[in-house]
Amino acid sequence: MDTIKNWNDIIDNLREFSYVTKHEKTFALDKFSQFSHWYYFPNEDTFAPSKFLGYRNTKIDKYEGKGWGGVTQNALSRYFDQVPSGSNEFKNLYSKLESFANSLNKKISFKTRHGTGGIHMPKKEYNQAAQYSQKLYDVSAADISAIKDEDGLEEIEGAKKTKLVNFYERIPALRAKAIQLHGLKCEVCGFNFKDRYGVHGVDFIEVHHLKPLHTYIDPSLVNPKTDMAVLCANCHRMIHRNKNVPLTIDQLKELWKKYNS
Ligand SMILES: [Zn+2]
Ligand SMILES: [Zn+2]
Q1: SS3 for 156?
Q2: Å from CA of 79 to ligand 2 middle
Q3: Are 137 and 131 in contact, with CB atoms under 8 Å apart?
Q4: Predicted TM-score (pTM) of this structure
Q5: DSSP β-ladder status, 37-41 and 118-122
Q6: What tens digit of pLDDT does each residue of 63-82 get?
Q7: What is the pLDDT of residues 182-210, one digit of tens each?
Q8: 208: CA distance to ligand 2 center in Å?
Q9: Most buried by CB count within 10 Å: which residue of 122, 124, 130, 253?
């Protein structure tokens, strides 16, 4: 089992761990009270344990608790600092962790507070990464109101479906994450708004949701890495041209290649 290679690997595992609260029964939930090293994510205001976070591509439904905690703690120590257990910060985080455990009807391992375990916080440079995603979040939120204004007329037609299709594409947190993961270049034609419009185009791109929406209703189950793509405004319109059945990215890519080579 490979350990995590970068911050994004950690965030992928964190997202996966958040599913723990959505499933009735998982091995990770069964083992909750045995996890002793907990990692806090200020941006998401949540925790995940070292053995779940430290290996690459941990999947909640396949998690079997294999591996040795020491290996994952070591891999994670590049990104996190342990909070001194006597400090006020530790007390605050511990009570947060306690309410998290309570919400799942679980107890925290004795070791976390009184033994070899502990609570860890991201190092400064990774808080800066969080600030970057906050900036994208703000830009996304502004773009969304702009799109809403433009689309106002269409909505009078009562196109409920269009609204639904666009629902996930318009959640700023999901957009910000998708942009962080996929970048700012259209995945079909390569268009980059900053290259073509300068400063005015900085951080602009549209986010497209790949999965049919009826497959899930809860935004926390959308994985921006696998369920979302970034597209320029033209390609995005073309993909949704048939409102009920969007093209796939590959279908549009094929068309684009056919007429642009
Ligand atoms: Zn494009
Ligand atoms: Zn779309």
Answers
A1: helix
A2: 34
A3: no
A4: 0.61
A5: parallel
A6: 888 887 789 999 999 999 99
A7: 999 999 999 999 999 998 998 899 999 88
A8: 4
A9: 122
